[in-house]
Amino acid sequence: MNKKFNLNMGLSFLILLALMASCSSNPDSAGTEYMPDMYRSPAIETYVDYGEIRGRENKEIKTKLSARQTPKYTVPYYGTDGSEVQMMLPNKRKAGVAWRESHGLFGWDLNAESAYDKARLDTVNLLTMTPENAETILKNGEKLYTSMCVHCHGEKGDGNGTMIQSGAYGDMGVVPNYKDLDTLSEGKIYYSIYYGKGYMGAHGSLLNKKEIWTLVHYVRQFQRDGYGKFEDVAEAESAE
Ligand code: HEC
Predict the structure, then answer these.
(1) Which residues pair with 56 in a beta bridge?
(2) pLDDT for the residue numbered 64
(3) Ligand 1 centroid from CA 189, angstroms
(4) Which domain covers residue 40, as residue numbers?
(5) How would residue 110 be classed by pLDDT, with cut points 50, 70 and 90?
(6) Whose CA is nearest to atom 14 of ligand 1?
(7) Which one of 99, 142, 192 would you pick to mutate in the ligand 1 pocket, going by the greatest count of ligand atoms within 8 A of its CB?
(8) DSSP conformational letter for 103
(9) pTM
(10) Which residue among 46, 93, 216, 224 is least enclosed by CB atoms within 10 Å?
């Protein structure tokens, strides 16, 4: 009985000592930090001054941004490559009535396309295709097309993608054959990919501008035989 009492006393005394040792005469101090990591979470929060632990400063870390990685799926506004920056600037065309009508689906009047009609007919692809880059552009285009468009538009661009074949798309909208849209200007193709059209959703938040222009090339390739084989591009251009 007595022994137990003594043990309890001893324990209490130890705890008291520990508590006292954790106090400090500085009223601003939180006292001794037994587990600093629990007081200051390391570097996960955006602007936490994680450079300082127990008064020890790591100046090198402290002066750098901790939030350097952009969230997944962020579309870069502009690149660091000078030749690409121009392309990344917001394109002149703004979403207008057509976009509101088709995506807000106000009144479901999908024929109201005045803004789209005004989309500049003379806009040419800002990503100029040359004999040197043609292959790369079409390769990148294929990659983008395969991940974002092929299920509706089909591997041959004939509007017969797996979603259409399976009936999942219902009878909502008819996906056109690119070949029938041969006269579309590059500006309009760009506009439709960026803002969407009818039952096709907007892709502006999923693709950066260079990627959209890459896809414009890829769509053209379905419309014009030999597009991207360079002699034919020159021909097609002069025919426009
Ligand atoms: C959900 C199915 C779907 C997806 C995904 C889709 N489209 Fe479409 N697309 C359509 C439909 C439907 C139309 C017809 C729109 C209309 O004229 O009403 C269309 C039309 C178009 C047109 C013609 C636009 C015009 O001005 O007449 C182009 C070009 C086009 N799509 C390119 C693309 C590209 C490139 C992608 C991938 C980034 C893509 N589409 C993804 C369904 C889709």
Answers:
(1) 53
(2) 65
(3) 9
(4) 2-62
(5) very low
(6) 175
(7) 192
(8) I
(9) 0.63
(10) 46
